[in-house]
């Protein structure tokens, strides 16, 4: 039952900052002009992914975890996470800036929210000319400096902004303030968590004239006030070879550009594998069962799958697993 590439139905999220690139560029079935996120694989309570193809069609991710356990997750992952899927996989379109925010680490998240923390990474799929993101502060600051600027409405004076273009990738540690800027379309890999502390929202209001909630007090002991050059990721782009973009205790993400026919050997991995297609298209085959993947689509392979065949005239994949 697990011997094929599993596709899930995208869960689309309307956002005050969302746009229409998920529909126009990634062909998501949205009827809105403000779709901000497509949750591709989610085990978050209230937003559990549902299989959209093959013999498992209609079953939830949680049902698969309960039935197949380590066959799906891998032995080590099942021992660690049980029937909880450890990653949340998304595509995000920011028509306007997201709020300046941060995420708590595991200890705070567990104590306050009974949740995992939220370490994440971004891969820029498309960016309008001049688009940028916020990652961290311009310099190391004190808590007093931070509060003074926040209370005076000048928090942006402290923030570090980075111009972005297609192919750039960033690692967002817990505690690091960050914001996706206007005009950015990206893929996001993160721990399974929906805990966000919003500290500044550009003074915007919704169509009812209401501001979104800020989490000033909750954020205060979760913020990393030090400037750290640990966010911009460098990686190789060797054709038909997996090259590491990011590797941490929570996930590994590789860049895999494919042209022609290749075979990926996962016999020694002991983890599920996820492909996110960030450019082009490819035919993916497992045990004679094939699925086409195009830009903006995601496939999951169970841990018991040892070999994946890929055929493409030109595709770029993100290869994700928990090692």
Overview of the molecule:
- There is one protein chain.
- By secondary structure, the protein is mainly β.
- The protein folds into two domains: 11-220, Jelly Rolls (Sandwich), CATH 2.60.120.10; 243-321, Jelly Rolls.
- Helices cover 14% and strands 39% of the residues.
- It is built from seven helices and 19 strands.
Brief overview:
With 323 residues, the protein is mostly beta strands.
Helix-strand blueprint:
Elements: E1 11-19, H1 21-24, E2 35-41, E3 43-44, E4 47-48, H2 61-68, H3 70-73, H4 75-81, E5 87-94, E6 100-102, H5 106-113, E7 120-127, E8 132-137, H6 143-151, E9 159-163, E10 169-172, E11 178-180, E12 184-191, E13 197-200, H7 216-220, E14 243-247, E15 252-265, E16 273-286, E17 289-294, E18 298-301, E19 307-321
Antiparallel strand pairs: 1-2, 2-5, 3-4, 5-12, 6-13, 7-10, 7-12, 8-9, 8-11, 14-15, 15-19, 16-17, 16-18, 16-19
